[in-house]
Amino acid sequence: MLDVQPLNIKKSMELYSEANELIPGGVLGARKPTDFIFGEYPIFLEYGKGCRLIDVDGNEFIDFMCGYGPIILGYREEEVDDAVIRQIKEKGFCFTLTQPYQNALAKKIREHVPSAEMCIFLKTGSDATTASIRIARAHTNRIKIMRCGYHGWHDWCVEMKGGIPKKLYEDVFEFHYNDLDSLERLMEQHGHETAAIIMTPFGHHLHQKMQEPKAGFLEGVRSLADKYGAVLIFDEVRTCFRLRMGGAQELYGVKPDLTVLGKGMANGYAISVVAGKKEIMMAAKDRLFISSTFFPNSDGYIAALKTIEILERDKVIDTLWERGGRFLNKVRKVISKYKVNAELSGVAPMFFITFEDKDPEIRRGKRNEFYTQLIRRGFFFAPHHHAYICYRHADNDLDKAVNAIEESLKCVEKKYGSKSDNYR
Questions:
Q1: Of these four, 40, 46, 237, 399, which has the most CB atoms within 10 Å of its CB?
Q2: Based on the domain organization, do 291 and 142 belong to the same domain?
Q3: What's the chain look like in SS3?
Q4: Domain count along the chain
């Protein structure tokens, strides 16, 4: 049935109206309504369980955003939450000094992540990418940075430059994923002044289809870093403990000097890590300053230790690949039936459905129609960001999503089929 009515999001809209009087823009960052489809998506959620979300108006969704990635198991995972609650009730989690769980977690990370000899614990991905750059600069006594991918909201890397003096990012240069020549040209010009090359080893740029590395690409980046004495940093905030326990570096067999971790390792609790070679990490001992009141809080350590235990015990990542692989095969077959220039990219644990057209207005129209139809049918995807599969996505949840994707593609074809170009 193609006709599906818009959701009732009356309470969400009322809360948003109120929020605009309290918070600039009502909601900030990647959660603002304009990053979805205004008037179609809820703006405020009430609760979640497993792979499902309920918004403040009572609408229920099978969720494929997983909190933008940290939910690797599922919402309100009892084993993880119970471990954290016990810690809070029986021992506490915020003190002047550090509790011993940092050592236990560092050992566990060292077991799994090939590049991890030492660790520094922080709270967010942006904290950790920025710390990795500071460490690389202190270690090399160089300033310039080569970057590829999204690395957070801090001054040196954020795409929106409002409020940031140019001098804070003028030594940062961007190269393109799977384009080794673009990096080689930059290194020929700046290589002997380059402190670090930082990149996402799996290509997941915002708003764009996902890319696996071409043969030789990551190896070529490694070779250029070695040639010029730069620190190679893999930003594995999204990929470690999701593509493999050891991240994309384990999957693709290329080891960086430093690795940034976060998101899936603690199933939603705030923690991030810089891990890497001892000789480089030791710059943080007495050549620079990294500190926060909340970095040593043990709730994140406890959540990460329990989450990693479950990932190991239940072979969660194998399940994501197997279950997600079956799902993506079905989605690929569905997409091939409709002449709307839809494209599926990514791998089983994280994927994206995008649209192509020579006319950007038609491309945006197809995308918005597709994701509008999905949210109306009770499936939470984002138009501008790739999707994730978590452990609590059962096969029947994924089969329901396949059906919803097909119905949504039918709507796109009905509305735009005659307007589509011959992109394919």
A1: 237
A2: yes
A3: CCCCCCCCCHHHHHHHHHHCCCCCCCCCHHHCHHHCCCCCCCCCEEEEEECEEEECCCCEEEECCHHHCCCCCCECCHHHHHHHHHHHHHCCCCCCCCCCHHHHHHHHHHHHCCCCCEEEEECCHHHHHHHHHHHHHHHHCCCEEEEECCCCCCCCCCCCCCCCCHHHCCCEEECCCCCHHHHHHHHHHHHHHEEEEEECCCECCCCCCCECCCCCHHHHHHHHHHHHCCEEEEECCCCECCCECCHHHHHHCCCCCEEEECHHHHCCCCCEEEEECHHHHCHHHHCCCCCCCCCCCHHHHHHHHHHHHHHHHCCHHHHHHHHHHHHHHHHHHHHCCCCCCEEEEEECCEEEEEECCCCHHHHHHHHHHHHHHHHHCCEECECCECEECCCCCCHHHHHHHHHHHHHHHHHHHHHHHHHCCCCC
A4: 2
Q: What pLDDT does residue 417 have? A: 81
Q: Tell me which residues of the chain have a pLDDT lower than 50.
A: 422-424
Task: Kindly report, residue by residue over 357-416, the tens digit of the pLDDT.
Answer: 999 999 999 999 999 999 999 999 999 999 999 999 999 999 999 999 999 999 999 999
Q: Write down the pLDDT at residue 419.
A: 65
Domain co-membership, 260 together with 296? yes
Beta pairing, strands 194-199 & 231-235: parallel
For 346, the domain range is: 10-75+316-419
Residue type present at position 261:
L
Do 21 and 122 have their domain in common? no
Q: Which pLDDT belongs to residue 289?
A: 97
Tell me: do 117 and 240 sit in the same domain.
yes
Q: What is the pLDDT of residue 420?
A: 60
Indicate which CATH number applies to the domain containing 326.
3.90.1150.10
